[in-house]
């Protein structure tokens, strides 16, 4: 097949590259074998600084493609390189690959077919199987597939999933941005431009610039909407290349701290470099819980403010729940109010990693929302809260929520006893409010007693 001059392309493939010409050569050769006609797509490669001499044969590797090779003399990072490529794209659909994404023959056609349906989710993710040096002979021989096992941990598989089949069900797609790496993901160009493209502030640090982009796409389209789809047959192979694993890990964690401060919301509270499926489960569960509380007027802060304020050791309080606008809180009060916009003093968090300084509060009060927490997350919440404040108050109003825990007196008593390993605990009935479990970290209780 040959390219038909003058025909408008339907899909633009975006590839950044830096010091990985051997991988890029194989990736371009795989794009020449696509079942999609070559006059229907273009390939835009941006070399992000570094030594350009190793790329001298790239034109031959991409022979027969609408290949645009752009060279940036100064390195700006992967976000900057992808933005440069996207600016030069002419198609209404962008497919992001990496230089080491060896494509199966149907890859581009499957991405394009997905987006032909106007009701389809805005982002399509494809599969990426890991490879080792023992598999490269197939790519070097221009074979359309590589002989890698599809099960993670056996020399292959998709690093995001723990099984050959991928994650079960489709709820995980409600947090699909957590899985949305730019080695194989497509999105309409108008959506990409609407969110401002990649954040070039990541600079040369490795990791998260792709997830952060697709989080903004998700927020732009509505966090409770199904904005992501997954196609196991739209597949690439991740070619082996040299990695500085320690540097990558350090970069990733620095970037995670940066993004978590930028977005004080539950989506980034559980993001991390491992166990993406577990993080997605948490995000989906807690977003639904927050939505429940807001829609049904549950977890109201107001009654707790009226009944507890005089019992607290000070005015510096973090209130967790909903309805803070009607609660009569003083200016500057901190809240996790899921019905109010997130901002400098209101975070849509569970409380695992809050942007609040240790020992800066007098108390943390959670009105019913703590009942939604997984047990390990509840333990982490009270541990973190105990580092922020003198006291932690878990309020159970007795409301029949769609929560994980429906506290009866015996269960609340047991909760108080098991928390006794780290806290001095007091269980109290408060008229007009409900049952309150007060937790005072042992070291704070000892200081107060002394």
TrEMBL record:
Pfam families: Glycos_transf_2
Domain called Glycosyltransferase 2-like: residue spans: 12-195
Superkingdom, natural source: Bacteria
Family matches, as PANTHER family: GLYCOSYLTRANSFERASE, SLR2126 PROTEIN
Name this protein carries in UniProt: Glycosyltransferase family 2 protein
Species of provenance: Micromonospora chalcea
């Amino acid at each position: 097949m040959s390219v038909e001059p003058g025909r408008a392309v339907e899909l633009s493939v975006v590839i950044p590259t830096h010091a990985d010409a051997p991988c890029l050569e194989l990736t371009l050769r795989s794009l020449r074998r696509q079942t999609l006609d070559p006059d229907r797509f273009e390939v835009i490669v941006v070399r992000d600084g570094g030594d350009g001499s190793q790329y001298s044969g790239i034109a031959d590797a991409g022979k027969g493609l609408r290949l645009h090779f752009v060279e940036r003399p100064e390195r700006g990072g992967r976000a900057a390189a992808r933005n440069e490529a996207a600016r030069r794209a002419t198609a209404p659909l962008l497919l992001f690959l990496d230089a080491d994404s060896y494509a199966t023959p149907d890859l581009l056609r499957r991405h394009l077919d997905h987006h032909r349906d106007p009701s389809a989710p805005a982002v399509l993710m494809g599969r990426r199987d890991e490879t080792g040096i023992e598999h490269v002979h197939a790519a070097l021989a221009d074979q359309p597939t590589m002989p890698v096992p599809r099960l993670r941990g056996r020399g292959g598989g998709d690093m995001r999933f723990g099984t050959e089949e991928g994650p079960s069900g489709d709820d995980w797609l409600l947090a699909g941005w957590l899985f949305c790496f730019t080695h194989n993901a497509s999105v309409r160009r108008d959506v990409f431009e609407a969110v401002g493209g990649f954040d070039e502030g990541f600079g040369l640090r490795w990791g998260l610039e792709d997830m952060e982009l697709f989080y903004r796409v998700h927020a732009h389209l509505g966090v409770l909407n199904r904005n992501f789809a997954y196609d196991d047959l739209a597949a690439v192979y991740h070619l082996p290349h040299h990695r500085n694993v320690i540097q990558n890990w350090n970069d990733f964690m620095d970037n995670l701290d940066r993004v978590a401060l930028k977005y004080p919301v539950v989506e980034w509270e559980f993001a991390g470099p491992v166990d993406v499926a577990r993080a997605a489960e948490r995000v989906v569960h807690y977003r639904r819980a927050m939505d429940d509380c807001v829609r049904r007027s549950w977890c109201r802060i107001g009654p707790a403010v009226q009944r507890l304020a005089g019992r607290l050791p000070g005015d510096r309080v973090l209130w967790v729940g909903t309805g803070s606008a009607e609660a009569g809180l003083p200016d500057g009060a901190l809240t996790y109010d899921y019905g109010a916009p997130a901002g400098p003093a209101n975070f849509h968090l569970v409380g695992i990693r809050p942007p609040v300084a240790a020992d800066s509060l007098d108390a943390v009060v959670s009105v019913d929302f703590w009942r939604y927490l997984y047990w390990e997350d509840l333990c982490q919440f009270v541990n973190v809260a105990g580092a922020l404040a003198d006291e932690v108050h878990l309020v159970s109003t007795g409301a029949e929520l769609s929560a994980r825990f429906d506290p009866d007196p015996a269960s609340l008593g047991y909760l108080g006893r098991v928390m006794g390993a780290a806290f001095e605990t007091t269980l109290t009935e408060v008229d007009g409010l409900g049952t309150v479990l007060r937790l005072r970290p042992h070291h704070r209780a000892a200081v107060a007693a002394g």
